[in-house]
């Protein structure tokens, strides 16, 4: 549905909440009160009793007030404005609210300034989290077509989603997103221009996480270094013209929020911890401990709401009933706009929805280390406070108009159902104020400052050429710079290289130079001469950025840069010296330990001593991990494969598996990092090594030719394939010499190399779970609050298991909508809950079954394949023995030829 009229938006929707709406009334004057039971406010206040097993002397309960209280009542957005306490000169204005949106949890702006809203419409709709994973959430897109500052035109870009984790604009009419309990990121595109996504493509895999919805991946974010980071994932991903690649990174320790500052430093927002994380150095270098990085008193919030309604209970309540220690946080932004005072620019902000505050964070740099504090602490205040208990700030963003937008879920419960269970302190408090009745709302606010008008220029980047986009790299608003950089890189239009080089060399705006530098890096057009020149720049910030950008060149084979890192480690600026140390470490340059030790010995600065010693510890840990990472047989294959790769394969495929560039910037051979082809069925890589490969790969031509390697024995082939499937950020199954021998025998009569299309045609393809598959099981356990007994979870990251210990005869069955030539299945059994022994049977009608394989289950990945004889619709896995543990499967995949 497309809504284009503000009056229709506020009055033409058939909801009780709008029953009193009149043409003269603003939609922000309509109160959610009208949708509640009118007798609610007049009804006798509920009498709350402590659960029988509660320990009243416990710090959680001691001193709790259980006297009857009037219910918390929602108010209109304009009425809510009266509840805010702002710093002098600032003003909040509602730009979107219920009923147009419900449960907004995050926003993003695309290249034309349209606002995507992530609506988590199943989040805590009652106190027990019922229906939490129902497919009713959505991503809506909003536009202010008349440029009056209020978003009135909308489309539902993507509907019927299971608690989506993020929305990432990714070019014209395209976004990236992922649902809960899934492992795949998908690209959704509106191909016909009606505002609704009609094309779904796999973008990347391996980024999911199952479990509580508050503890899953969120906020995939494209940052200045052209990599994408998300919470919970100790890896980063990157779009390239040849596919999405991956690299390991540190642990983000984030929960809901990823952002970056003007210099590409990422910040992650810890949820339950209530504090920012990962802000010392870019995450790719790992995690570092800096004592005192949170200054004294940083964890104390200054809340104006005294309901004592927080999960830690009375032990974290001030005498006035407000929170005394941050306990929840959500959403973050380094404000990089130009239409708020300079004192806010490049400052970090996040919401503490339990305290009902928005916090500003100021950073003090000492010897290259960051120390953060609430600048309003001495005044016992916050950047934004509210007396309305329903104010729940969960995200914020620098907007195209240069101001800050704040997402307010405006609801009663903000903690997930695991923390509101029967007998809990929090449940008692929620019911005392009847806050479990208040859901389905949401507001988005614009923050402005008196005397500073918002920018009314409407972005039109999707209608601009790459040459026209270059000018936005000099925009004072960081949002414009980010979007222009991303779109130029997605275009891969190298005709702008000279313009970018000119911007780097001649601009007097440092941030424009930095963005131009990274845009060249993203176009694979950055030269060694340029980075070496920039390493001598008068600006320490430019020197540090040149070091970071040069890492890509080193990975592509420019190993002479190692000497530059050694030289730059003696730079007079401590931040530059630290960056040189980090670059040398992450690239594992020759004699890297000696390099770090020399820096420690020659530079007494606290930061060099601290970070240098931690880098040495990391190198020692990596050595130890390398010795125990895999089973002995797997480790032997990995080590042999690495030796072969480094000696032979790296020449074409790159030192870091990213491909080696030709003189014209193309790649000699495809990248291995995150390759969907390589990480699919291992038969693809084995047959390629055995017989060679020619032809364009999915439309991309490479200069190099993959020759047959069948003169090498089975262990040689198995080791190379196993290595490249388990390095460069990849994590796949190992390939045994026996598997290679089997394929060698099957293809012994082959004459000549494979053509790509021919090879792809005979490789087993992974089948993607569809809504019209029928998944049944003889036994299914209920998993998690709000879950259902759904055996199709076996295909997700969440997983399926039997309801009790496994027994002989238990079965799991898949009925496909049409016949497929099934040839293999894989599943992850986790730890102890693997089937002791099982068989696989196929059927064309679900009645007559043919056993095609049997196997003994193992911990972790299980794979069984068989010779595909004919196409069938039914597959059944049956347990053959009793066991003490349940039978569990997750990430189940079926392969068909």
Automatic annotation (TrEMBL):
<feature type="domain" description="F5/8 type C">
    <location>
        <begin position="762"/>
        <end position="897"/>
    </location>
</feature>
<dbReference type="InterPro" id="IPR009056">
    <property type="entry name" value="Cyt_c-like_dom"/>
</dbReference>
<protein>
    <submittedName>
        <fullName>Glucose/arabinose dehydrogenase</fullName>
    </submittedName>
</protein>
<dbReference type="GO" id="GO:0046872">
    <property type="term" value="F:metal ion binding"/>
</dbReference>
<dbReference type="InterPro" id="IPR000421">
    <property type="entry name" value="FA58C"/>
</dbReference>
<dbReference type="InterPro" id="IPR011989">
    <property type="entry name" value="ARM-like"/>
</dbReference>
<dbReference type="InterPro" id="IPR011042">
    <property type="entry name" value="6-blade_b-propeller_TolB-like"/>
</dbReference>
<keyword id="KW-0479">Metal-binding</keyword>
<dbReference type="Pfam" id="PF23500">
    <property type="entry name" value="DUF7133"/>
</dbReference>
<dbReference type="InterPro" id="IPR008979">
    <property type="entry name" value="Galactose-bd-like_sf"/>
</dbReference>
<dbReference type="Pfam" id="PF00754">
    <property type="entry name" value="F5_F8_type_C"/>
</dbReference>
<dbReference type="Pfam" id="PF00034">
    <property type="entry name" value="Cytochrom_C"/>
</dbReference>
<dbReference type="InterPro" id="IPR036909">
    <property type="entry name" value="Cyt_c-like_dom_sf"/>
</dbReference>
<dbReference type="GO" id="GO:0020037">
    <property type="term" value="F:heme binding"/>
</dbReference>
<dbReference type="GO" id="GO:0009055">
    <property type="term" value="F:electron transfer activity"/>
</dbReference>
<dbReference type="InterPro" id="IPR055557">
    <property type="entry name" value="DUF7133"/>
</dbReference>
<dbReference type="InterPro" id="IPR011041">
    <property type="entry name" value="Quinoprot_gluc/sorb_DH_b-prop"/>
</dbReference>
<dbReference type="InterPro" id="IPR016024">
    <property type="entry name" value="ARM-type_fold"/>
</dbReference>
<keyword id="KW-0408">Iron</keyword>
<feature type="domain" description="Cytochrome c">
    <location>
        <begin position="636"/>
        <end position="728"/>
    </location>
</feature>
<keyword id="KW-0349">Heme</keyword>
């Amino acid at each position: 549905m497309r809504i284009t009229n503000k009056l229709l938006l506020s009055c033409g929707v058939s909801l009780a909440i709008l029953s009193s709406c009149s043409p003269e009334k603003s939609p922000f004057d309509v109160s959610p009160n009208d949708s509640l039971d009118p007798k609610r406010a007049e009804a006798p206040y509920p009498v709350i009793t402590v659960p029988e097993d509660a320990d009243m002397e416990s710090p959680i309960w001691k001193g709790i007030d259980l006297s009857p209280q009037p219910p918390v009542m929602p108010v209109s957005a304009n009425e809510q404005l009266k509840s805010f306490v702002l710093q002098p000169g600032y003003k909040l204005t509602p730009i979107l609210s219920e009923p147009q949106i419900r449960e907004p949890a995050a926003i993003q702006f695309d290249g034309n300034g349209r606002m995507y809203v992530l609506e988590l419409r199943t989040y805590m709709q009652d106190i027990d989290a019922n229906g939490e994973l129902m497919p009713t959430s959505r991503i809506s897109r909003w536009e202010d077509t008349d440029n009056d500052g209020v978003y009135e035109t909308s489309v539902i870009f993507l509907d019927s989603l299971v608690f989506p984790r993020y929305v990432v604009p990714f070019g014209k009419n395209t976004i990236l997103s992922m649902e809960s309990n899934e492992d795949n990121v998908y690209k959704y595109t509106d191909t016909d221009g009606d505002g609704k996504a009609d094309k779904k493509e796999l973008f990347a895999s391996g980024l999911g996480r199952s479990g509580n919805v508050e503890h899953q991946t969120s906020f995939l974010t494209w940052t200045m270094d052209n990599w994408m980071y998300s919470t919970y994932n100790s890896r980063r991903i990157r779009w390239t013209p040849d596919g999405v690649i991956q690299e390991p990174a540190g642990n983000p320790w984030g929960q809901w929020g990823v952002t970056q500052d003007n210099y590409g430093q990422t910040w992650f927002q810890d949820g339950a911890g209530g504090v920012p994380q990962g802000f010392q150095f870019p995450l790719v270098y790992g995690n570092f401990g800096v004592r005192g990085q949170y200054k004294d008193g940083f964890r104390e919030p200054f809340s104006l709401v005294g309901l004592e309604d927080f999960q830690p209970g009375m032990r974290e309540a001030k005498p006035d009933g407000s929170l005394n220690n941050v306990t929840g946080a959500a959403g973050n932004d380094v404000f990089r706009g130009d239409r708020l005072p300079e004192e806010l620019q490049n400052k970090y902000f996040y919401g503490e929805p339990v305290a009902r505050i928005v916090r500003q964070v100021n950073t003090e740099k000492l010897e290259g280390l960051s120390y953060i504090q609430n600048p309003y602490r001495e005044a016992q205040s916050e950047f934004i406070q509210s007396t309305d208990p329903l104010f729940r700030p969960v995200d914020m963003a620098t907007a195209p108009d240069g101001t800050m937008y704040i997402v307010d879920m405006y609801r009663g419960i903000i903690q997930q159902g695991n923390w509101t269970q029967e007998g809990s302190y929090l449940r008692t408090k929620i019911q005392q104020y009847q806050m479990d009745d208040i859901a389905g709302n949401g507001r988005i606010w614009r923050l402005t400052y008196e005397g500073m008008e918002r920018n009314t220029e409407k972005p039109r980047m999707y209608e601009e050429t790459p040459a026209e986009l270059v000018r936005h790299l000099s925009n004072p608003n960081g949002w414009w710079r980010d979007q222009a950089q991303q779109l130029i890189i997605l275009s891969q239009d190298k005709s702008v290289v000279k313009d970018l080089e000119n911007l780097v060399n001649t601009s007097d705006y440092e941030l424009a130079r930095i963005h131009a530098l990274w845009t060249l890096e993203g176009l694979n057009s950055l030269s060694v001469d340029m980075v070496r020149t920039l390493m001598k720049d008068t600006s320490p910030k430019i020197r540090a950025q040149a070091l970071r950008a040069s890492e890509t060149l080193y990975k592509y084979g420019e190993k002479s840069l190692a000497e530059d890192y050694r030289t730059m480690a003696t730079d007079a600026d401590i931040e530059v010296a630290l960056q040189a140390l980090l670059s040398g470490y992450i690239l594992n340059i020759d004699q890297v330990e000696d390099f770090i030790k020399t820096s420690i010995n020659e530079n007494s600065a606290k930061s060099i001593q601290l970070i240098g010693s931690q880098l040495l510890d990391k190198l020692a840990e990596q050595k130890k991990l390398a010795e125990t990472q895999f089973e002995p047989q797997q480790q032997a294959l990995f080590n042999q494969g690495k030796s072969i790769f480094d000696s032979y394969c790296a020449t074409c495929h790159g030192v870091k598996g990213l491909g080696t560039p030709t003189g014209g910037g193309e790649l000699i051979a495809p990248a291995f990092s995150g390759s969907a082809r390589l990480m699919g069925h291992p038969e693809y890589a084995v047959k390629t090594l055995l017989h060679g490969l020619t032809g364009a790969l999915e439309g991309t031509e490479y200069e190099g030719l993959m020759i047959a390697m069948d003169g090498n024995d089975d262990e040689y082939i198995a080791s190379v394939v196993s290595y490249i499937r388990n390095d460069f950020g990849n994590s796949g199954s190992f390939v045994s010499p026996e598997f290679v021998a089997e394929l060698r025998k099957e293809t012994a009569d082959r004459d000549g190399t494979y053509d790509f299309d021919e090879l792809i045609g005979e490789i087993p393809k992974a089948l993607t779970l569809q809504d019209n598959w029928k998944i049944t099981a003889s036994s299914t356990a209920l998993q998690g609050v709000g879950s259902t007994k759904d055996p199709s979870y076996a295909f997700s990251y969440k997983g399926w298991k039997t309801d009790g210990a496994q027994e002989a005869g238990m079965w799991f069955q898949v009925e496909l909508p049409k016949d497929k030539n099934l040839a293999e299945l894989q599943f992850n059994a986790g730890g102890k809950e693997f089937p002791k022994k099982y068989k696989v049977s196929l059927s064309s009608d679900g009645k007559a079954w043919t056993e095609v394989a049997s196997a003994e289950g193992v911990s972790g990945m299980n794979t069984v394949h068989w010779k595909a004889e004919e196409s069938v619709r039914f597959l059944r896995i049956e347990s053959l023995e009793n066991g003490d543990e349940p039978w569990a499967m997750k990430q189940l995949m079926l392969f068909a030829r």
